[in-house]
Amino acid sequence: xxxxSLKDHRQIGQEQDLFVHSELVGSGLPLFTxxxxxxxxxxxxxxxxxxxxxxxxxxxxxxxARKDLFExxxxxxxxxxxxxxxxxxxxxxxxxxxxxxPHHIQIYQRKPxxxxxxxxxxxxxxxxxxxxxxxxLGGLTRVMSITMDDAHxxxxxxxxxxxxxxxxxxxxxxxxxxxFKEYWIRLSLWDPKNKTKYLGDEKTWEEMQRQMRxxxxxxxxxxxxxxGEAAFYGPKMDLMAVxxxxxxxxxxxxxxxxxxxxxxxxSYVGEDGKGHMPYIIHRATLxxxxxFLGVWLEHVQGILPLxxxxxxxxxxxxxxxxxxxxxxxxxxxxxxxxxxxxxSRAETMQNKIRQATLQKVxxxxxxxxxxxxxxxVSVRTRDGKDLGKLNLSHFVKRVxxxxxxxx
Length: 407
Prior knowledge:
Number of helices: 13
Oligomer: single chain
Structural class: alpha+beta
CATH architecture of the largest domain: 2-Layer Sandwich
Largest sheet: 8 strands, mixed
């Protein structure tokens, strides 16, 4: 990092006790602590709820599949170097999944789908596994266990542009909620001079790339075209977010696929009663949850907004005799769905405040005899601001309002 005053996400993760790495587990395979797990669940639940609001249905698929599935999909042909070797057990051969799309395709194929039921939007927050060079692995930004907020949209050809726009709108909402102000789209196109890298015919590639280009222009979305960076099955739009330090990171991706539907012989029943081939949009808003958290922790330098903080309030009893009443206050806060912890350690009040400040806890509530008698809390912020004594119910209302506003 150019600015030595900036903290790396690994340092932030250690200071705030979010994740660790183990040589016995292996590089590129981070372990999330209770606080780190809570943070990632908050982020995952945000995406779950957002996609549900946008008409996605959530599905679940296993982490392995028969080798045949990835042979039909073409992934073993085009992607085998990044996949883990097949596993043989009891005369059968399985592959650890590196992507979810073949599984979701099997869900789509479970029954006949009418043109009136299109699009079918399937979402899954799922971990996939990709083999990376050990020298390329680092922290959370390059891992082998990749948890994607993955989704696949099965659509008619006339729905492609609208669905791309909806996916792009979801990306833009995520950027706003997580405090990213600048972004641009990398429009990844095929290389017509090296057609053997890709599946599909030239006419379809050119038509789909034209539609994506038109959408970006119509929505006034900043973009740059990059030839040769498309997926082997279709062109894609990768969202490049600019963090608060001016660095660019790839997060979201929206990819059009007109090859897997053909390989799996997908169809829907058209208005004419005949079978027609759908298209697929692959999309992930956060991209990889692990990578997103690493990028975002550096973007905010560990100063998490209240709605995303694993611990929103630390209550600090001045003396041991105050602990019982402080725990009652904590239960009242928890009943309002506020994430709170009580620091009951045998440390001085100053040390407890110092530790909560280092952990970047948004609010600290200091409680002694006067506060207990008045049912108040002496409130400090992580940046050292003293908010004075606040009535407990007033404090709860203030905190809940800040959480709801995602400020």
